[in-house]
């Protein structure tokens, strides 16, 4: 099959790779209907995370089940499935508590790389969720978004305790931040402040439900959020970047007693204890347990109640994955969908 | 009047001080029935916090209202009252949300120092809670505990989402940690693991409700908590120290999806973002909004359902405050009650 491999920062190639096969009896192999490039793929692409060896890329996937292992019970060949970046058994105590991304059997779901024609998915029964029948083709981008960025934005909103009557601020205007806006709206937020400096993203945020835009960053951004919230700060803040600046912007934008949900993978972040103590905020986040939300998200997409696939503003054949990375790196694209 | 003043690390004196008087129309002056030395008083006493000028000490108090300002409506002279270390209007949006220690009009409740015969209390109506009639004298230590250490331990337990069926770990065996054990029991915890190395405290913890004792600290303490919780960690962890080691011990003792409630005033703490991200814990804490819990705590004490006054294992006349500090500093006493 053809698959994407990162050789070094900036050097991503599509090449012939071994066809994935069932290795564990709990595996499935899926034929990808669509895949995409994640903001987190840019960390190694930019050299911020090391690239120690040629690495198959991609962890977002939807497609048709081709084959299942002998112990797979509920997932069947021919089903259209969506899954998350971490595999989970979905039966352990942590899974049942809603933390499938901390499953005691957690592993990468698609070790073979999902930016490819086929992928082997671990712990298929616990990881994959089948759609009711084959989806309309125009729904595939939205289902692909559910695989990671929508589920992650959703968890950010849940972790930030978004709900009716609340004012929500979203730090970060990548696909996750934009879909956190969508999640906040679905969860009933009264007011949603999107913090965004980039024009195409500023246009999409209101379509997803943002009521206010703040273009300032850092302390100036915090001051604007305070101005918009009677001096107190937002009830809920969703952090979707993962830097020191964005975390502090999020914490400082929340009111005492407010909730910060953080889903940007933290890079070189150290939170000052004294400031956190006196901020009185709640802090929760981490790798989003997307599996928990997939049934609900698949339902909303099937009902056409939400259209998260709009975050894909560039669609390319898999063979042009390198251009897909480049466009995101240069901020010419919010998110690139790849057609295998 | 006589009052306690800290001149320099280790140098605490009881001396003649001006009698507190009404300064703002919202003030009250109370005649203290009892006061005490707080673990947090030891930070400047030990020189860990700077002592820039002679400082009147003490922020825990119960007593009889002597006089009130012209705008005080609900608090009356002759009432026996309990209050918290921060004054609050108890009417602003943050107070109504339960965060009186982040009240928009927050100030120190007893700027004149509560380790004294009299104290001026700011924002009397919002800060003080009157007991139903004069309490029995033997209840005074417990009511004094409610003023800070009990309310703080209680908030730690609430912030850690302690509840029925949960396993709770408590990091720190000072008065706050011990009363967090008591709070966890009152809030219905199934199992309460007290982490304590000091014998008198190890004896008190089970009396307050601890079901298990862990004497190891740091990584070894974490390993013991994991052993006791099927490898997963506690559902709820209460942190009652405020150091880097204790915060990390608390975070690492909690299971993914678990809750850490931290009430030890943070000193030189920096939380590593990556570890926090993948820990999947909830983090909440800060200066305890004791005011929120006072009516309930006063009720429990009046009913003799709880006996938090047991944390006072040394009682001295106010004149011997210096010995009270010294005994706590040298860990000869858990907490010193001072009789004005």
UniProtKB/TrEMBL annotation, chains A, B:
One of its GO terms (molecular function) is oxidoreductase activity. PROSITE patterns: ADH_ZINC. Keywords: Metal-binding, Oxidoreductase, Zinc. It comes from the Bacteria. Gene3D superfamilies: Medium-chain alcohol dehydrogenases, catalytic domain, NAD(P)-binding Rossmann-like Domain. Residues 175-285 form the Alcohol dehydrogenase-like C-terminal domain. Pfam families: ADH_N, ADH_zinc_N. Coiled coil: none annotated. Its cofactor is Zn(2+). Residues 25-121 form the Alcohol dehydrogenase-like N-terminal domain. The keyword Metal-binding applies. Belongs to the zinc-containing alcohol dehydrogenase family. This is Threonine dehydrogenase-like Zn-dependent dehydrogenase. It comes from Nonomuraea jabiensis. The lineage of its organism: Bacteria, Bacillati, Actinomycetota, Actinomycetes, Streptosporangiales.
